[in-house]
Specification:
This is DUF4190 domain-containing protein. Residues 349-363 have a biased composition (Gly residues). Residues 339-363 are annotated as: Disordered. This protein has twelve helices and seven strands. The chain has helices at residues 22-33, 37-54, 59-82, 85-96, 151-169, 189-192, 225-241, 247-250, 254-277, 282-306, 311-324, 331-337, and strands at 109-111, 125-127, 132-133, 135-142, 180-185, 198-205, 212-213. By secondary structure, it is of the alpha+beta class.
Length: 363
């Protein structure tokens, strides 16, 4: 029986597998870490050449590293183009929000496609507030985290908050032109999943074919100390007047009307105190003093309305009190202070029978 032939040189009886290419591993690591993506892409290319020439393993690793490094390279280019990681993420959120720009900040003005602020505008262009524009941002706030509460809930919250915030930006409602209304930009369900919680409050014209001209901002950054003092005092009364019960649902409800009259009476006392506490310039001192005296008389009538025994007595004192705080009676003081002197529509006379949900009184 012939002897066994010896193993040929270079042949292993255990059939060891070919080694894995080291550059392929390095390419994959750099691709996963998104670190030095250009280097990772280059190492992947070199690794493929070595694998074919040496018969090594790692083709999948090299290809995977090249793909991840390529993606990383694109992201790095976008990062440097758009300025910062936060800027890039903001654009991701804007894309989810239907391309609505959430980078608009308080005091900025913009144009919307077709001048339409309702619905979900696709894009806004920032423009100077000195010229014509479609909208002006007057406030913004964040909604609470958690699950998306639904469009109806988001809209209701935006409506209430934006209406309450407009007075901080435009302290003098008389200086706001006719036709200007409050709009708001809200997160969509899609942008909510990307972390978008911001509501942007905007002034715009109710007529889509009309524009705003000039900034509507009149707050402490624009007004002088005397104007601010007057408007803060007026805001106390206006806030109380705005709490009037709705006659459509409370007709005959004397208790609610009396409670409202009581709030107005307290506000009148506070307003008069604030006006007396301020040191007015000489030309404004007398008209403000005359106005304050009328507020004192009005407070007495509103206090009587708050204690009325029946609806007839309530209306009697409410009408008398409303005539004493007729917005036209404030024009002289406003003129002396350099404030707007034309009452907004609906503010040109007294509240009449009182008790309406919209009293028409804005002093």
């Amino acid at each position: 029986m012939p002897p066994y032939q010896p193993w040929a040189q270079g042949y292993s009886p255990y059939n060891r597998p070919a080694p894995v290419n080291g550059l392929a591993i390095a390419s994959l690591v750099l691709g996963v870490l998104c670190f030095l993506p250009g280097v990772g892409l280059l190492l992947g290319l070199v690794a493929l050449r070595q694998i074919r020439r040496r018969g090594e393993r790692g083709t999948g690793l090299a290809v995977g590293g090249m793909i991840l490094s390529g993606i990383g390279l694109v992201l790095w280019v976008l990062l440097f183009t758009m300025g910062s990681p936060s800027g890039l993420w903001q654009r991701v959120k804007d894309g989810a929000r239907g391309s609505v720009s959430t980078s608009l900040t308080k005091g900025e003005c913009f144009d919307a496609p077709g001048g339409v602020l309702s619905g979900r505008p696709r894009d806004f262009d920032k423009v100077s507030c000195s010229g014509e524009h479609d909208g002006e941002v007057f406030a913004s706030f964040r909604l609470d985290d958690g699950r998306y509460p639904g469009q109806h809930s988001v809209t209701n919250t935006a409506d209430k908050r934006c209406w309450s915030l407009q007075g901080d930006y435009a302290m003098d409602s008389w200086a706001v032109p006719e036709g200007v209304d409050v709009y708001y930009l809200t997160p969509t369900e899609e942008s909510w999943t990307a972390g978008d919680r911001e509501v942007t409050c905007v002034f715009g014209n109710t007529d889509a074919s009309a524009n705003l001209t000039g900034s509507l901002r009149n707050d402490e950054s624009v007004l002088d100390a005397d104007q601010v003092a007057y408007l803060k005092a007026a805001h106390v009364l206006n806030s109380a007047l705005d709490t009037a019960p709705d006659t459509a649902h409370t007709e005959g409800d004397l208790a609610k009307r009396e409670a409202w009259a009581g709030r107005v009476s307290v506000a009148l006392e506070r307003q008069a105190r604030m006006l007396r506490a301020h040191d007015w310039p000489d030309d404004a001192g007398k008209p403000v003093a005359v106005l304050t005296a009328r507020l004192d008389k009005a407070r007495v009538e509103w206090a009587k309305a708050a204690r009325a025994k029946d609806m007839d007595a309530f209306y009697q004192h409410c009408d008398a009190g409303a005539n004493l705080i007729d917005p036209l009676q404030t024009v002289t003081a406003r003129q002396a202070l350099g404030l707007a002197t034309t009452p907004p529509s609906g503010d040109a006379g007294p509240a009449g029978s009182g008790g309406d949900g919209d009293t028409g009184l804005q002093v």
